[in-house]
Protein: Multidrug ABC transporter ATPase
Organism: Rhodanobacter fulvus Jip2
Amino acid sequence: MTTIIPSSPPVVLQLDRLSRRRAGRHAVRDLDLSLHAGQVLGLLGVNGAGKSTTLSMIAGALRPDSGGIRLCGEDFLEHPELARSRIGWLPERAPVWAELSVSEHLDAHGRLRGLKGGTLRAARERVLDRLDLQPLARRLAGVLSQGQRQRLGLACALLHRPGLLVLDEPANALDPVQAVALRGLIREQAAAGTAVILSTHLLAEVTAVCDRVAILHDGCLRHDGPVQADDHQALERTFFEIAMHGDAAARAA
């Protein structure tokens, strides 16, 4: 009788010695990180730790000074067009085209992603329903509240069913009910095989939805390991050790 060993999920993202300088200093230095399909990675760090710079490079908005990025096994730096179909990105402040309605905004975003016709209409209706945006479909994006803009930005990130979802402080301006709904959405995406990177200042968000956590400090990776739902205090201790002691904490570990 042949024993079938289940294969591990494919690697969606691979960072190799990724570095980027900003304003004359290293914002990110020699970062090695990988992410598998269906995995939710929490990215933590104090302000200035390099989180947003890292996410911008992963999303293709910034080019690294050195190092490599592989997306689904392909060289992302040589083929930046891969971002259109494979990455969904929600920056910390979701950008909007103020003069377009919510539906028009999604249609424009979808066309940039290569969607058209019935495929685009179906994708638009799906995310409008999933993000509870149907009542706002005809409202101009420019008059939305910050929380509504955040939900629209998330809808844009999900519109084309990306294999990698990059979220930078996605709970910004969301009320408690919407924040809980966001957790459910992240779990839903992971269950469908999407790899998710969640950058947040809220440790509770990480223990609620992430199965792994990476902590940056001064642009360097100081911790990378699994996280358990009931492990909030342990994560808090690790985070504050690194935040307060930096290099000394890393050497002690």
Q: What stands out?
A: Confidence is low (pLDDT under 50) at residues 247-253. The CA atoms of residues 242 and 249 lie 6 Å apart. The chain has one domain: 11-252.
